[in-house]
Specification:
- By secondary structure, this protein is mainly alpha-helical.
- It has one domain.
- It contains ten helices and no strands.
- The termini are far apart.
Length: about 270
């Protein structure tokens, strides 16, 4: 009995403290992020391209809508109106897509014992968060140079809307990455789904102007609530008829939770495959 207690006490003494565990985990994240940046972008110009790609996507869509003479249903700036619809969807879709591809493209790293599936997913999520933040900052600078007042009516709610867009992208990215690890063909299906969500996401139309039965269908659209939330924050008179913040946050959180549970259940199969 004494020997057993002595053995247990010794095992407790050699157990690493919490700060050491957190520091080691952070080192893993940093190493994965640096490797991801080097392999994806190669250099500083490559990282700038990663920022320019979604930014150019946003600007092209805004410029096309403005050049076609489409007026803003709310506010004085058509460019700002379309940006409030495009930006949340871009944050959601880019985050979801690249988080999903992160685990698929970095699967060989799982051969290292210190690297787990969730390490790759969350390190990729941190990178996408940084890219999204830089895209928004550059877009604000462009609006400032163009003389467009980009300050929202409610800055706090605007920040929450963008944060919710990112959280939803993480949830969809994690959940679909696990499916893609088992069925690689799911990547194509997910890309087509993103296109469908883009066409029905309220970017090119105002959900408030749709018939009630259409709004009832749009209510279940995952990302439309983020765009509606941002437009509510920008325009005091908008008053979205379908915005449900609780639904958006619940869906995003449920996606993250479902992805984590699915990863735990299928971890052995993914490592073998």
């Amino acid at each position: 009995m004494a020997r057993e207690l002595r053995a247990r006490s010794q095992s407790v003494l050699v157990r690493p403290p919490l700060m050491a565990i957190l520091a080691a985990q952070w080192n893993v994240f940093v190493a994965l992020m640096l490797r991801d940046i080097r392999t994806r972008f190669g250099s500083a110009p490559g990282f700038l391209i990663a920022i320019a790609w979604p930014l150019s996507h946003i600007l092209i869509l805004v410029v096309l809508n403005v050049s076609f003479g489409r007026t803003a249903p709310y506010g004085e700036s058509p460019a700002l109106w379309f940006a409030t619809g495009v930006v949340p969807f871009m944050i959601f879709s880019y985050t979801a897509r690249f988080v999903m591809l992160g685990i698929v493209l970095n699967r060989p790293l799982l051969a290292f014992p210190n690297i787990k599936i969730l390490d790759i997913l969350f390190s990729r999520a941190i990178i996408e968060c940084l890219i999204s933040a830089l895209v928004i900052i550059v877009l604000m600078i462009i609006f400032l140079v163009a003389g467009i007042d980009f300050m929202p009516h409610d800055p706090v709610q605007a920040f929450y809307a963008l944060l919710a867009s990112f959280w939803l992208g993480i949830g969809f990215g994690i959940f679909n990455s696990i499916i893609a690890m088992i069925f690689v063909q799911w990547i194509t299906v997910f890309m087509l789904l993103i296109v469908l969500l883009w066409m029905t996401g309220g970017v090119f139309f105002v959900p408030n102007h749709m018939p009630e039965y259409v709004r009832d269908l749009l209510y279940w659209h995952p990302s439309i609530h983020a765009s509606e939330w941002l437009r509510n924050a920008y325009y005091s008179s908008y008053n979205s008829l379908i915005l449900d913040v609780k639904y958006l946050l619940a869906l995003a959180t449920a996606s993250v939770f479902a992805g984590l549970v699915l990863e735990r259940l299928l971890r052995g199969r993914m490592l073998v495959g």
